[in-house]
Every structure is written in structure tokens, then in C-alpha cells.
Amino acid sequence: MRRADRLFQIVQLVRGRRLTTAAFLAKRLEVSECTVYRYIADLQHQGVPIEGEAGVGYRLGAGFDLPP
Fold it and tell me: Is 4 helix (H, G, I), strand (E, B) or coil?
């Protein structure tokens, strides 16, 4: 799976749940938790309002929609 596909899938998984852990994302994407942390940091740097921290969980900020 391409990196861009994984990043998109992370946004979809985080958006669909109240609180999402890195362990859950790593299992679904078949990558390590360190890779998930790196992907989350990349998404945050690109302006996706993902809130949370390592060891606690992540959630998507209110009002965020992906453009078509």
C-alpha cells in the first residue's frame, strides 16, 4: 500500500471513532506503532487537526472534512 493511501486511511479511521489508539491504527494498517506516530505527525504538519498524543489516543478536530 502506498504511503498516501495509508495517510488517507488514517484520517478515515480517526474520523470514524471517538478515540483511536496507535495500536489500533498499526494493526489495521499492518505497520508498526512508530510508523503510525510518524504518519500522525506528518498529517498534523500538513494541517489536519488531529488531536492527542502517543500513549493516549487520537481524535479528529471538529468540522474537518476532506475535499472531494
Answer: helix
Higher-confidence position of 1 and 50:
50
- Grid coordinates belonging to 65: 472534512
Query: Could you give all domains of the chain from N- to C-terminal order, each with its CATH number?
Result: 3-60 (1.10.10.10)
Could you say which DSSP state residue 26 is in?
H
pTM comes to 0.83
CB 33 within 8 A of CB 21: no
Place of cell 476532506: 66
The residues pairing with 59 across neighbouring beta strands, listed in sequence order, are 51
Q: Collapse the DSSP code of 37 into the 3-class scheme (helix H, G, I; strand E, B; otherwise coil) and give the result.
A: helix
* Residue 26 to residues 7, 34, 67, Cα–Cα distance (Å): 12, 9, 25
User: How confident is residue 16, by pLDDT bands cut at 50, 70 and 90?
Assistant: confident
